[in-house]
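BUG: 3D viewer hangs when loading the predicted structure for this chain

Environment: internal workstation, default settings.
Expected: structure renders.
Actual: progress bar stalls at 90%.

Input used:
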Amino acid sequence: MTLSGPNDIAAAAALLKAGGVVAFPTETVYGLGADARNAEAVRRVFKLKGRPEGNPLIVHVSDIAMARECVSDWPQAAQALAERFWPGPLTLVLPKAADIPAEVTAGAETVGVRCPDHPMALELIRAFGGPIVGPSANRSGFVSPTTADHVRAGFAPSEVMILDGGPCKRGIESTVLSLAGDEPLVLRAGAIPAEDLTLDPATEGVGAMMITPPYASLHDSRPAASRPPSPGQSPSHYAPRAPTVLFDAPDWPGLVVDVEGRVVVLTHDATRHVNPPHVLILMPEDADAYAAKLYAAVRQADAMNPALIAIERPREKRGLWFTILDRLTRMTYRGPRAE
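Structure tokens produced before the viewer hung:
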């Protein structure tokens, strides 16, 4: 594997300045980058992904100073959280600056900003000299890419320039936290568990901020029109092409026996075994390692053209496991697929 170098980054920055699209690595997943202040370039990203116009994009910045240029209000809570978690997988939603196009925010008056924790992403943003949008570099609704090869499988070289920064170390999307309302609100579970976002006035010079982790329900029950917009919230999302189900220990092994054709099983239980033509992919028991492997493992399973992908439901449901379960639940949703 040959990683992209300085010349590639310079060429990518020049392409962004010309209104082009560049896939770039972050610590979470690969992003599909374009100039965040260029409405035409942003529309090109939506078209390439087949992304619904009502699904906003996250703006990626190189530092706090650039983030402040993208918003019209930067409260002390944003400063404290950015100082603690950036560069890293936390997106802060705040009132947008006037020069952020409506195409980025799905017409909302707020914008999500984050500083990615990947040297190549930061070098690209600095070389470009401004913020870039960065939704996952895949067709909308399907499994997010965590390697450059995943991106290559979805887009032609004539459509997207790809920077190869190796596998993504986190492998799961950022947590999206809105600070635009009266109370902080987690809009999307992500790589940073909600309970880690508490602020302490004694040490951080701000009012206490407590966030209740959204463990009661994986999906927001409010009507779509009344929910704040955020990426990744369709009931069907992150989905492979093959039929995919979650199973629990009592379902084993009948789930495999009852299916005609190959079943690919993802499990964290090393005592599970299958016979050909079925395939077993052993998943880590550690939440961080599981998250880092998840999308790549699902893509590996999908590439085998199975009759079914069966994923054993994690036993733990708190912390990062909650985010993992959120992705698995959307991945295995049996209603209409996200557009």
